[in-house]
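Hi V.,

You were right to ask for the full record rather than a summary. Here it is.
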Amino acid sequence: MRNSLKYSLVAISAATLAACGGGGGDSSGSRDTVSVTGSSTVYPFASAIAEATSANNDGINTPKVESVGSGAGIKEFCKGVGANTPDVANASRRMKKSEFEDCAKNGVTDIIEIQVGIDGIAFAAAKDGIALQLTPVDVYKAIAASPFGKENTAKTWKDVNAALPADPILVYGPPTTSGTRDALAELILTAGCKTDEATKALKETDKDKYEDVCEGVRKDGLYVDGGEEDNLIVKKVSDNSKAVGIFGFSFLEANLDVLTGITMGGVEPTYDNIASGAYPGARPLYMYVKKQHLDVIPGLKEYLAEWPKAWGADGMLKEKGMVVSPEDIRQKNADVIANLTVLTADELT
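Predicted structure:
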């Protein structure tokens, strides 16, 4: 009797989703497990919440969490409403207005945005590896495709800054699908780019060229796309004394036995410096939820409810390496979950 009731409820859920419209294809079929996709940075935290969801709620399956990158995750999320589309997209940067509009075109009209914590774009080397003290300008000159509009010919760190060692530039970093790559461009590369007044002025006269010059990354092998598996970048850097890695702070903190953080503008990538905003690479972490799925996907409401329990100063997520948001931000987002407040286009850029 119990199983019959369960399958009946799943069938009803599938029918309800189908009525919402599939957007990205056939939305028939059923699903009794929450589907989460997106950011590799948010992945370990989302996985921990998934485990807590099933542990704390009898009869709820452990949500399925995938790591595909912020951009790729949001793209899947926005394909439509239905059992064949994700319920949640994690992101290590905020959803873009163009992505929000794509969601709306495909029937994803009610999106809940939740800031779950803070992270930092950490730069690191092997424990006994290359010793560097960098600035955003150094990073920009080292890995930009066309620093200040000129072809990048730098081969060593000394070519970038005479005060740095004459070791070859080799940087393992995030791919274009990653929110970490977007944050790298916005928080570090563009900060270095804007130190040149002529380049900075391009933003007003030729925005496309400005973005190419400030955000484009070299493709000659000195910057290596490390993929969405940040642990793989950790492994490559820890095995190569000359390499530098770029990934979320939590991956640095979890691997301090084999890695050492690189200062940025004289500021170390530490928990306190990221929490205070002193570290240049600090950034908020988000998840996006389809409100249209809340009443029809078993476990989705329970999954959301677990986040505020875990993101506080004494919560599980801090133990996992997440930097805790200020109390007012935590309360604001707990209220968003409690009230199921939807995001509007005018909040985005």
